[in-house]
Amino acid sequence: MIAESYRAEDAMKAFGLDPNSTSRPNWFLRERALTEAQSATRDAVWRTTPTTRAGRLALVDYARFQIALFTGSSVEDPDCPAYLFRDIMSAVTAAFEVDCAPASDSALHDLSGCNLAQLARLYETWEGVFHHLTGAGAIPCFTSDRRSGFTPAGDVLDREYDRAGAFLSTIADEVRSRTAVSADDRHERLGVLIRHELNTNGRPVDAALLSELNAQPDR
Please, which residues bridge with residue 150 across strands? Predict the structure, then answer.
């Protein structure tokens, strides 16, 4: 869609730069057709939500291009018309909502039968997978340049990274819902929740969790 719109814009630009374009028979029909193609392909881009990181980056670049095209101003500081800003923000927001949506997993895991020790070991195991995928994302065969983002293999890796992170959150939520009935259970529960805070926020920020941790007699 984006490539088609760029082609339509180029065709209109070429028509405008041709000094003989309006001297040809029925030139206005050609101009109308170019204008309709320009509008139709642009609207199609705004209505199409990209499903890959590369597509989302391409949409952002396209939005900058359209702002500059319509205003003649710098793409770094555009004076964007209200209607164009509305269309751009609608398209970009939809694109990044896809990126930020929780990873879907058709094979939902029932963790209710696991005790706290089992949940803790499961979290530790999956945490290793999560961190391995984090590091693997920098391998050249998975990562292209800034504009195109991940390679096709990298897109697969990125989706699995999201799934791994989502499963860690699922385990942590299950652990958080449990009540520890022994000192061992309490250590397992707090250990998972603290690790999850570090993985999620880089440091413990949950006030209730910190209060619970500080209240432990053997901390």
Answer: 143
